[in-house]
Amino acid sequence: MNNERFTLKKEEILSKRDDINLLFLEGKYFKEFPFRVMHRKAVKGEASSLQFSASIPKRLFKKAVDRNLLKRRCKEAYRLNKNSLKASCEKQHIELHLMLVYISKEPMDYEVIEQKIILTLQRLQAIYAEDSQ
Predict the structure, then answer these.
(1) Among 32, 17, 37, which residue's Cα sits nearest to residue 96?
(2) Is the pTM of this model over 0.90?
(3) Residue 73, SS3?
(4) Residue-range domains of the chain with CATH
(5) What contacts 104, CB < 8 A, 6 or more positions away?
(6) 133 against 96, higher pLDDT
(7) What is the dihedral of CA 74, 49, 89, 123, to 10 degrees?
(8) Would the pLDDT of 4 be above 70?
(9) Distances (CA, A) of 52 to 1, 32, 62
């Protein structure tokens, strides 16, 4: 099995302040509990066709240990399931910025988070498939 397919490379992480600000200003969003999913088409010519970030608000989880655990779960679930959306973006020549904001007040198990991320990625794929037609 090729491990390269399932890596989360540095250029796939949404980290530039300007990109994140644009995502909050111009991005669209929907809710897929326990996430608020923010997304927007990026400017052509950037490093990766799909950039991702996860945010766990400090006001919901005061302890950094709890925030880090949830962020690791989100990143891992995304890393393992991103390939279909990434392939779809590359096929349609779309560059997408994506941020998951955790909105539940309770920490959830990895299995629940993974199922919700899979649903989210499928929903995004449907949104941008309609967009290209």
Answers:
(1) 37
(2) no
(3) helix
(4) 10-132 (3.30.230.10)
(5) 33, 34, 60
(6) 96
(7) 30
(8) no
(9) 24, 16, 23
